[in-house]
Design a protein that fits this description.
Chloramphenicol Acetyltransferase; seven-stranded mixed β-sheet; 550 residues; six-stranded mixed β-sheet; alpha+beta; single chain; 16 helices; transferase; 42% helix
Amino acid sequence: MQVANTFMHSREADILQDYLESRAAKMDNWVIIFSDLIILEVALRGEVALFVIMIRRKSFKLIQLTPWWIDKAYLESRTPLPIVSNPGVSFPKWNYCDLDGQIDAAAKVAQSALIFYKMIQNNKLPQEKMGDELLDMGQYKNLFGTTRIPSLNKDKIKYGYQCETPSEHFIVMRNGHIFRIPAFDSNGNVLSLDQLKNEIKSCVIPSSEIVNEHPLGVVTAEHRDKWADLYSKLQDSNLESLKSVEDSLFVLCIDKKMDDIVGVTPADLQSLECLHGGGCNNNSHNRWFDKTLQFIIGTDGYCGVNYEHTPVEGPAVASLMEFICDQLYVSSSHSIFHYWTDKMDHSYIQLSMQLAYYRIHHKQPSTYETATLRKYLNGRTDTIRLPSVESLIFTSAMIDADDDKKKPDDNDLMHMLKYAVQKHKHYTVQAMNGNGMDRHLLGIELAASDLNMPLPKIFSTDAYKKMMHFNLSTSQVPTRNLITMCYGPSSPDCYASCYNPQDEQIHFSICTFKSCPTTSSYRFARELEHSLNDMHRVVQHSESIPRFRS
């Protein structure tokens, strides 16, 4: 397996400019002025030099930031894993409608996943690239056999590839019951489809018809410290059962039918089943949310994955799901939105979401977009930020275009769109090259802690706090098959939007909290459709159509 670049560039001086630009489009003038004075003070006093100290003291590399990032973003978090941390990912709908079909699908998914696991073990996965640059493939080895272990204050990760003896089993859950199923024969070969189906039919189904009144898996959805406390008490009485789940390659959840919800489409119900199981009256008790991979086998052809986010990012999971779809010969032409996409890229899509939010709330959203750092060894993600000054100008002008008296010329709108796209693309490249602002700021913050130095004043400004509160959390997970990912909002008033741009269509998955009175997934979807149509009109009516794709 080839190794990607090791070093991430440091540009401790340039992050100040990025910081200023990022919140110039977001903050009130008085906050900007006050924040600028603080930044100037920080620069003059040399507090940004904390990052330089870390470079000199520890030959700072991305490989050293990644464990810090994992601790900060995941393991130290005490919030329950479902919704906010663990994403749910839906397969295309498969054609079965009875228990035999469900068992058949479960066996096929398990067998395909085990074949993929063998490919990882034997270094048979094709090397992934971004353009001509190699991407680090290390996350794939984290997929199988890995489990998050609850612990007070900070969880731990038990990686499957680090175990002395590789796992040879997986877990099947049905109605809250847990079963250990062999994965390989005596020669180390993946069990045949008939063998896997027979294991499920003979071992699982007869012993799981009645719902388990005390399902252990449900506690994995608890607050992490509460689960950690119970986990320590279970070590004496249930050690072998816990170890069997933790050491397993993955969990296969054979679900019961989800309760219908008025006004909720089957696709939305499938997303809820994959994201959190639908509550304990449905299938939330039939989960082990600490496990990196949970395959969800629903009724009536609705299947998917729930994955624990700490060891892997979405693209690795999506690649596994693509492989499973290919093994099962699945194809689907279903779409949510059909749009003109031959000249559309992620910057264009991001601006459509900016416009949709602005139409609802009449303000610019502090926006998170995932940037991959897989060009670097053990790289995870950085943040691509919006709004920019250019996106603010464009969205404001588009709102003015709703008023015929103030309506700008389409050519002027096209130029504004072009500059906003170019600005976003520029920062995207910066972030993916290791020159984003957020991980550098994280490095400064953690360096201060590591050196027992006072936290720089940047981190206590109103501007910084507002900038770190996201109104829109977005991610792009492109696939050939119709595989849709969803995840919960990062804050109560946030929209979570994951999108899959394909050749002739885009698929959006939009999540909001019902408890928030100011956000609505359905309204955002309507305004997003409105925005895409309006932007399409501007591009069509302008004198020249720019080639957005690089």
